[in-house]
Each structure stands twice: as structure tokens, then as C-alpha cells.
Amino acid sequence: MRDFSHGLAHLSINTATLRKQLGLPAMLEACARRGIARVCPWRDQVEAAGLQSVARQLGHTGIKLSGYCRGGFFPAADAAGLKAALADNRRAIEEAKSLGAPCLIMVVGALPGALSGQPAHKDIGLARAQVVAGLAASLDYARSLAMPLAIEPLHPMQAADRACVNTLEQALDICDALDPDRSGAVGVAVDVYHTWWDPKLEGQIARAGRERLLAYHVCDWLLPTRDLLNDRGMMGDGIVELQKIRGWIEAAGYAGPAEVEIFSEHWWRLPAEEVLDACIARYNTVV
Amino acid sequence: MRDFSHGLAHLSINTATLRKQLGLPAMLEACARRGIARVCPWRDQVEAAGLQSVARQLGHTGIKLSGYCRGGFFPAADAAGLKAALADNRRAIEEAKSLGAPCLIMVVGALPGALSGQPAHKDIGLARAQVVAGLAASLDYARSLAMPLAIEPLHPMQAADRACVNTLEQALDICDALDPDRSGAVGVAVDVYHTWWDPKLEGQIARAGRERLLAYHVCDWLLPTRDLLNDRGMMGDGIVELQKIRGWIEAAGYAGPAEVEIFSEHWWRLPAEEVLDACIARYNTVV
Q: How would you class B6 by CB atoms within 10 Å of its CB: exposed for 0-12, middle for 13-18, buried for 19 or more?
């Protein structure tokens, strides 16, 4: 396994981690000051700062992307909605390309309307079929821009409203269907928060292999967890066996960054500098 | 599929549903007045009322059990803890027999100490091995009393603190290892709350078959869900496809009751009579 105990060479910061404290430009400056070499920004943050401006700032600071958050949300209640989702994913692929992202993270969506509490229906099987169709329809364009799509299985507690792909096995079955040659055009983002509990995790990471492992996200699972979305823990504060899982990931061939992604009302209330210091300290000791 | 639109023949009430309103004797009376023919009581409620007294009341009222909640919690931090868990499971098996339960529901446990916020370690693989060992050690005694053990996979959001068996596939793999002859001595309890999200649910229910399907629990998944334990919904108030899943269960050979099990701060605040009325109305219309 790679030695993370010194330096920051393999650290990335998902910018959701500081979304309540800083805009993206200030976040990039804060990362640059510390020598953090990679980030994974969110589309709304990029839009607020301006795509070209962000691209220029990445050039100035030398910061690279570990991914771009996010495409997906394919299911819809009608044909117009399905079409709009495909158009939106084309734009996300183009933005990812403009920023030099190595992959576009795909949070695939679930029951249409569920995120606002008004699901149009309950048929998760239909949503799953629409996800596969949406990924298939997006893949040609993504291939034409050489932008890999990284399907992120989300925790089953988010299956109704955010993503109906909920295990690594399910995500890899989709990859196998869409890209049987393992070309690298579609793969997975493994986030320990979403996957640590899975009894098949080790085997499915091995199955994924280097060609399919496009991103690796870390944080921790707190005891107790008080919210289904915004109560993630800082690495080391919960029960995820981070080094065991990273061992599996690296044994499968992954050599990219460990991206810290913490949605947390607790950490969002602390100063950005303090959060970044904690990310670095934990990266060096427990990731 | 069986017709649930009239009568109560296949309804059972898990007594956790009314645990804040009534003691077990009053709950049994309330069920008897309505013609509810089955319940699944919890050990602490039986202990509070007295085992022999509960057994007598079941005799008077004619109410039968659909299961007994619960055995399990096998993992422990030391040998004494492992031994104590086995002894406690023997007592649970005996109590289930005394009450004429058709099966003992097994909530298998997870990281020792996690439920009180102080996990002794983070090794979920070790916990899973201790669960299999504990089930194996309990099975001989359970067989000797003809008391089937029903492994209940819990939702992955409860993997750290309540049960490290989190998918039906994982539970059935354990059943196959412990009882390859499908004797009926060990099987599963399928609770829609814990399993609805699983992309392999339909196939694994078919795999389970009549011999392994020992209990079927219903409630609903609310949008949004505000708590990881006590925010279950009344059937029809959420997004679970109840009749689709019951179709799979019955196609696999299950002919037992649908047991309503609702842990809910909302429903615990309402009068018991109102909750029972709702359970019956929803059983007749959406289960």
C-alpha cells in the first residue's frame, strides 16, 4: 500500500466538504496554500464562480481535478423529463472536459420527484431501467470526449430519492452490460460511506479492477448517525476500516487519489481552515 | 395472491408498534377485541408481564404468535460475552417454545458496544464470523425444541450497531451453510423496511422458497425518513411496493401472516385504538 503518512500527494478535497464556508475560488486558494493538489468540485459551485474563471484558476494554481460532481438523475416522470436529463448530462460531460476532470461522477437518480417529497410513482424497477438507458444514451457522447463516467453506488438509505444504484455489484453489472470490453469509458466511484457495510465489498472491488475503479471517496460512518444525508464523519471518528478498504482498492490496481467528501452539519459550522487541517491530519494518519 | 381486502385472517401485529401506549396484556386484549388473531411480542414486554401470564392470556384469547422477537446479538468483545450471548439465546428459544411461537426472530448483532456508542472494535468481518458461529451453536438446541430460527437481515444503515447481516442474499448464504438440507430449522424473516431497496430482492425471495421464508414484516419507507431507527411509515404512506413484494413472497410459497411492525415516534404518540384501526384499514387496502 502507498504511504500516506507524509505529504499530500494522494489527497483530494471534494468541495462539498466546505460548501457552507467558502465559494469555490476561495476554496481553491485555501487548498493551493496548503499544497493540496486535487479537488472534486460540484456543478453548482462551478456555475456560481463561472466555468471559464474556474478553469483559469485551476491553471494558475496547478490544482487538478479528481473528478467532477455530478451527472446522473436520469429517471423522470415523462418523456420530456427523460430528454431534459440527457441534455443536462451532455452539458455535465462538456463541463468536466473543460475542467480537465479524469471522470464525471454519476449519481444516477431514483424515483422522480422523490427528492422534493413528491414521488411520481413507486416503481424502483422502472427507475433502474431508466438509469441504464440514460447511461447508455450518455456513453457515446462521453466516449467522443474521452470523459469516463463513474457510477457511484449510494447507500441503500438513499435509494428512493438520490440513487437507485445501491451496491457495487449492481454498478458493475451495469458497467459490464454497457462496456463489456472494459475500455475504461464507464466505471465506478467507490465511496466508503456508501459501501463499507456491504458483505460483498472486497470481492466486488477485486472484480472492478483497475479499468473500472475511477474514484475513491473517504469519510467515516458515525455512531450514532443522526441524519440520512448530512451526518458524515471525519475519517477516524467512526467505524469504517479505512486502511483495510484502501488495501483492497490498491490491490485491485487503483492508484488515484483518496478524495475526502464530508457532508456534515457539524463540519460545515467550523472554519474552513480548521476543516482542511483536520482533513490533512487524518489523511496522514488514518486514511 | 391471497385476498387481504376482507377480514383479518392473515394480519399480525408486532407489539413494538404499540410499545409506548400499552403493556402487553392490554395490547392482547385490544387485538382480541378486534379479532386480530396473531401477534409477535418482544422479550422485554413478555418479561414485564410474566411469561406464564402471557402464555395463559394467549390461551384465553386464542391469539397465536407469528414469531417471537428476538434472539441474536451474538458478537461480543470477549469470550465471556460470547458465552453470555449463547446462554441468552437458549433462554429466548425456550421462551419462544413456551409461547408457541412458529419461529424466533434473529437480530444478529453487530460491532460489540456499538449500540451504546462505544464499539469495542471496527472489524465487521469478525462480527460476521461471530454471528455465524453463534447461529451454528444455537441451532442444535433450537432443533431439539423444534424452534426455527429466522435470520432477519436489517437495513445497511443499521449494520454497525444492530445487525451485520444486511441483505437477504447474505442471510440465505448463512442458511445454506448451516442447513444445506433446507430442513426448515433456519430461515429468514423478510421485512420490507429493511429489504425493499435491494436490487436482488425478487431473485433472493425466490431462492429462499417456502422452507426458508419464516416471517414477513410490513410497514413503509417514508420520504423523507428523518431517523435511522424510529421513523417507519404506516403501510401506504411511503414508497414501498407492498403488493409487488407480497406477490414475490407468495409466489415463493409463503402462506403465513403479514406482520405489521412500525417503530415510529409519530405513531407511538397516537392512541392505541387509532393505530390498530389504521393497521387494519391499510392491511385491507394496500398490503
A: exposed
